[in-house]
Design a protein that fits this description.
mainly alpha, 61% helix, two-stranded antiparallel ribbon, 6 helices, globular, disordered N terminus, 148 residues
Length: 148
């Protein structure tokens, strides 16, 4: 039988993620009530998607995406970036006010009219993930002759 210590770590992390999502949900509520965004189509669905995407990459669990979180996000999306590019992306999103991306900045960027590199990547990724581009199943066996 596993000790309760082992369960604590996972449970603690789960609770932390729940609290984090709750905070993001409260911010989403502000956007839903904001007149400025009242004409935004499918706002509730979009905000739900933003919340899930953001929580996935908030690695430091401080409610912010730092340089390493952004780096991992870009790698996971298949568009790795250099540190300089990542720093530029953060400046683009925050207007240079911070070296981490908080959720409000993230939502403003996603709903805003300005096109930021991060927004373009995420929008493209969402469109791309709609259609499976990788064949299902294990990769085909390769032999030495087939290598370039």
């Amino acid at each position: 039988m596993p000790s309760s210590k082992n369960l604590q770590g996972g449970k603690a992390f789960g609770l932390l993620k729940d609290q984090q999502r709750q905070k993001l949900e409260e911010i989403n509520q502000e956007y839903l009530e904001d007149q400025k965004y009242s004409d935004e189509e499918d706002l509730a669905e979009k905000l739900e998607g933003f919340k899930n995407k953001y929580a996935e990459f908030d690695l430091n669990d401080q409610g912010e995406i730092d340089l390493m979180g952004l780096k991992r996000m870009m790698e996971k999306l298949g568009v790795p970036k250099t540190h300089l590019e990542l720093k530029k992306m953060i400046v683009e999103v925050t207007g240079g006010s911070s070296n981490t991306i908080n959720y409000r900045d993230f939502v403003k960027m996603m709903l805003g009219k300005r096109s930021a590199v991060l927004k373009l990547v995420l929008v493209f990724e969402d469109k791309a993930s709609g259609s499976p581009c990788k064949p299902a199943g294990p990769p085909p066996k390769r032999d030495i002759a087939s290598l370039p």
